[in-house]
Write a structure and sequence with these properties.
About 40% of the residues lie in helices and about 20% in strands. The strands form three sheets. A seven-stranded mixed β-sheet has the order 1-2-3-5-6-9-12. A three-stranded antiparallel β-sheet has the order 4-8-7, with helices on one face. Strands 10-11 form a two-stranded antiparallel sheet.
Length: about 375
């Protein structure tokens, strides 16, 4: 069975409520105006892509990373952007979404095309692209994942202590209030709160206001509710495929039959996961809310995004040296000014064993 055939079979298991592969993709509206935040995010993404490219090309004897993804320095509001964007939409429907990078064996690398084929029309390089051993979509996240996880552990511990202390206070000091026949259900409720149930525990704050004791216990229930909400928030950083991209990535795989991967670049580490594993994860409803969630991403024009726990993937780089950064002034039409941040340099220290494993490369080859 070919790689594409395996992916096609997996798409049949993905819930249509999440991605309906039988329906055409939703048409995108052309953005009309860029923001400073959007350009900074684009610069960060370009830096992450360059970071991975340099790491592979500086460490591999037999493989080459080539820039392939459709991109341009134009942003919404500049002359020529509308044409670029519509050409991009047409290409999505023709061959699918180009991954940011292609990995070639050096024996298949075309020196005449060089290390950047992103501006070459797709119909000029179809046969060449099919020779790639992998396509990599590079996503970026402005976090230090180690510090984030440390902070989440502290947060969870703090609010867990608050939750159980509050429960114990209510049961110890306000049991007389709760023993009224109309309120005994809250005694049963509080007794079901355990370390095993706290991640799914939920209730409605009573709203009692008729005397001082009821107000006090009601405020304690409010405190308990706040603590539980904090505990139940997603506590992992994620690899972030957009729902709208799943179809066009599949279209690209259908066109070229080249294995596809997502690499998530943080400012201290890089994690990778295969598109095959992504489909496997989201096909299992038991994973929903455990190792992935589906959310509106405010950092990405509020697009619906699948957020998969990074630790589900492979640590591709166990350490990243942060880049330098500087502020840039950009003048738009009508004298509108945008100020954004650009990134340069940095080094990703690859875990070559994990990189070989995820890409399916024999140890002696890399």
């Amino acid at each position: 069975m070919s790689y594409y055939d395996r992916i096609r079979e997996l798409t049949k298991n993905v819930p249509v409520e999440l991605v309906d592969f039988e329906q055409p993709r939703d048409l995108a509206r052309t953005p009309t105006q860029a923001s400073s935040n959007f350009i900074t995010n684009k610069e960060q993404g370009d830096w992450a892509e360059n970071l991975v490219t340099r790491a592979i090309n500086e460490n591999s004897k037999n493989f080459v990373a080539v820039k392939y993804g459709k991109s341009d320095d134009l942003v919404a509001g500049e002359d020529g952007f509308d044409t670029f964007y519509q050409d991009f939409q047409t290409e999505l429907d023709t061959i699918g979404k180009r991954p940011d990078l292609l990995i070639f064996k050096k024996s298949d690398f075309d020196d005449s095309l060089g290390f950047d084929i992103s501006q070459i029309p797709h119909n000029h390089i179809t046969d060449y692209v099919k020779k790639a051993i992998a396509g990599i979509e590079v996503r970026s996240s402005a976090f230090l994942i180690d510090k984030y996880e440390e902070a989440m552990q502290v947060r969870t511990q703090k609010f867990t202590e608050i939750a159980f202390q509050t429960r114990d206070t209510i049961l110890a000091e306000y049991i007389d209030v709760l023993e009224h026949p109309s309120r005994t259900k809250y005694i049963t409720l509080l007794n079901t709160l355990t370390p095993e149930t706290i991640s799914i525990f939920d209730f409605k704050v009573p709203g009692w206001r008729s005397n001082e004791r009821l107000i006090e216990v009601n405020n304690l229930f409010k405190r308990l509710k706040v603590a539980i909400k904090e505990i139940q928030k997603r506590d992992y950083l994620s690899i972030t495929p957009k729902v709208e991209d799943i179809k066009v990535v599949y279209k690209w795989i259908e066109t070229f039959n080249v294995p596809h991967f997502y690499f998530q670049v943080f400012f201290d580490k890089v994690f990778g996961i295969s598109f095959e594993q992504i489909l496997t994860i989201i096909s299992n409803s038991d994973n929903d809310g455990v190792i992935f969630s589906v959310e509106k991403d405010v950092q990405n024009q509020n697009k619906t995004t699948i957020k998969i726990n990074s630790k589900t993937g492979y640590p591709i780089a166990s350490k990243v040296d942060e880049p330098t950064h500087e502020s840039i002034r950009k003048e738009m039409d009508r004298g509108r000014l945008l100020f954004y941040v650009t990134f340069k340099g940095g080094t990703a220290y690859l875990d070559l064993d994990n990189l070989r494993t995820i890409l399916g490369i024999e140890e002696t080859e890399f």
